[in-house]
Write a structure and sequence with these properties.
Two copies of one chain form a homodimer. Chain A has 343 residues and is of the alpha/beta class. The first copy, chain A, has helices at 13-20, 24-32, 39-52, 58-65, 81-96, 110-122, 138-145, 169-182, 198-213, 231-242, 258-270, 288-291, 304-320, 339-342, and strands at residues 70-75, 100-105, 127-130, 150-153, 163-167, 188-192, 221-225, 252-255, 280-285, 298-301, 328-331, 334-336. The first copy, chain A, has three domains: 13-56, lambda repressor-like DNA-binding domains (434 Repressor (Amino-terminal Domain), Orthogonal Bundle), CATH 1.10.260.40; 68-167 and 304-332, Response regulator (Rossmann fold), CATH 3.40.50; 169-302 and 336-342, 3-Layer(aba) Sandwich (Rossmann fold). In chain A, the strands form two sheets. Chain A has a six-stranded parallel β-sheet, sandwiched between helices. At the A-B interface, α4, α5, β2, α6 and α11 of A face α4, α5, β2, α6 and α11 of B. The first copy, chain A, binds a DNA duplex (30 and 30 nucleotides) through α2 and α4.
DNA sequence: AGGTCGGATTGAAAGGTTTCAACTCAATGC
DNA sequence: GCATTGAGTTGAAACCTTTCAATCCGACCT
């Protein structure tokens, strides 16, 4: 009945077959093609399974079948709500396809990312979604070429060797700055860095384009660079802005992500500034905490769920469709205006 | 050399053995006991592996060995920073033990939790950590009895059938309210719910004990209940507090978690209150966003990393040590005082 | 020369599942 | 009464790795 502690390893189909007085092929049929088995036999087998506490051995199953029932997402930072929201989108698609989704957190460490990718490849997972530390790494292509479907999430790859799903960051930067120009700002700071991050470069790029197209002088779009996209760095940027002379001080700031924007907002409030009268702020990502900030944050929203869902669909297509062709999907961001710029 | 797309399933030890002109036992030795193989042979085998793009098949390995190199954490809500921090602690211990950690998000849905637990059991993972939707479910004990080590995280179990790791929530509630009493508050609101959540009950319990021990009248500790522990619910609670008459309105609020506290804080600022002069606020969990709030939040800190690390160590002990005994570990929380109560 | 030792290598067996060609047997058709 | 049908059942083979007892062989000893 119940199995005491220290029991030998769990029952196998063979044991079940013996207990039910059938062959092991029949047990397998009960599991995989119940319609081919007579009702009486099926019931007998099911009862034997229950009594023995039979648990299918997925390893053996996978070994035989060659494929698993699992998808994995190797994320850059499980602590950043943006990525967990992307993961939620992936999960939706995985669930619909009847697959389990395992999340792995590389925490931006390249050796941990590599270790997870190896582990997942050895497990023969059905597909890997990854937001890589280095989106141009050749190891990703090699991985895909050895047969595991790979989709790059939230990073664009120049070449066509892999599927990727991303959001147009140049457009996002443009939207943010056009909004600020519309609101009458003529001296604006871009806060973010380091410039090695593709996202940061692109968002700044878009900001500059919008600025130039409005005919405004480049020197009035100043860059306040940070060493990471964190709350702490946002605060420190705020302190630097406070240190500027009144003539140079910007009337608005566009931050490379919401964490930075929240830090900046916090520092601004500490300095006694009114938001947005003394300083308007635009963030990026529109994480849930953006709306919940002391002054609700205007932010550039990315379709996070869509991003995840599309990535999952691409990886499933690559895994199941022999005519699969690699695609680079780019979504459009959208500005969500709130009190931090609207007054 | 490189393997084109549409290649048949990857090379096996047998293929490597053939390519290197050795037996398959030798290939296995190169992988598992390199010291037993002569240098020349080892090099030849390694080269063959590289040329064929050999990838170990973890399923076959596991099938033979009976155990995997994986731990899993089934979390209640991947979007709550508290749980991702616990996961980070688990990861530390898993990494030290040379195991991979897979995260699964049940999203508080009982059927998804069940589906993940089944999947993980079938995969024969080395251990499962879980913050369950229902900590008293019998299915967890059954799972453990069938042979998979299980540790309950952040929930206490009455009986001794399982290991569990938690933080003393009664003490946490006590600390929060004692702090408020120390700061001179004599009318305090507890904000949180629903009371079906064990944490909520315990924290309120602790609050009441501290209140009674200070000799204060029970009616001055009012309960503002919410239907979930979210930012939105915090805002709504704030609105309800604002609606109270001046005589009844509390001078301080103790929130069941930081998300609620952040919502309340936001609403309070909108109402034009000064924090903490018009309303002091204490949160719970001390998530990173608590310190980054517009008014840095006083909060009850739980040793999140420790929680995760200890849980992982218990599950490893259960998996490796035949003399393992189930333990209920309870950590002490700690109050972190910040501007939201200190003025 | 004969014997011993030990490092290096071998190959069969085991682990649990799924598949599939082959088989059984009762019912149906002629 | 014999052939045909088909639903139900069977068991060997395959998937890939690891282990371990057995074997090989060159070096060393007497």
């Amino acid at each position: 009945m119940t199995v005491g502690p220290g029991t030998p390893r769990s029952a196998s189909v063979k044991d079940v077959a013996a207990a039910a007085g059938v062959s092991l092929g029949t047990v397998s049929n009960v599991l995989n093609r119940p319609d081919r088995v007579s009702d009486a036999t099926r019931r007998r087998v099911e009862q034997a399974m229950a009594e023995l506490g039979f648990v299918r051995n997925e390893s053996a199953r996978q070994l035989r079948a060659g494929r698993s029932h699992t998808l994995a997402y190797v994320m850059l930072d499980a602590g950043n709500p943006f990525f967990t929201d992307v993961a939620a989108g992936i999960e939706l698609a995985a669930e619909a396809a009847g697959l389990a989704l395992f999340l792995c957190n590389s925490d931006s460490r390249i050796e941990r990312e590599a270790s997870y990718l190896t582990h997942l490849e050895q497990q023969r997972v059905q597909g890997i979604l990854v937001t890589p530390v280095d989106p141009d790494a050749a190891s990703l292509v090699a991985l895909a070429q050895r047969g595991t479907p790979v989709v790059v999430v939230d990073r664009v790859r120049r070449e066509q060797a892999l599927c990727s799903v991303a959001v147009d960051d140049v457009l996002g930067g443009r939207l943010a700055v056009e909004h600020l120009i519309d609101r009458g700002h003529r001296r604006v700071a871009f806060v973010g860095g380091p410039p090695t991050i593709g996202q940061v470069r692109d968002r700044l790029d878009g900001a500059r384009k919008a600025w130039a197209e409005a005919g405004l002088p480049g020197k009035d779009l100043l860059v306040v660079s940070s060493s990471a996209l964190t709350v702490a760095e946002g605060r420190s940027a705020g302190a630097r802005i406070a240190g500027l002379t009144a003539r140079r001080r910007p009337t608005a700031a566009f931050c490379a992500n919401d964490l930075v924007a929240l830090g900046l907002l916090q520092q601004a409030i500490r300095s006694g500034w009114r938001i947005p009268d003394d300083l308007a702020i635009v963030g990026y990502d529109d994480i849930d905490f953006a709306e919940a900030a002391a002054v609700p944050l205007t932010s550039v929203r990315q379709p996070r769920h869509e991003l995840g869902r599309m990535a999952a669909e691409l990886v499933l297509d690559e895994s199941g469709n022999p005519e699969h062709e690699h695609q680079q999907v780019v979504f459009q961001p959208e500005l969500v205006a709130r009190a931090s710029t609207l007054g």
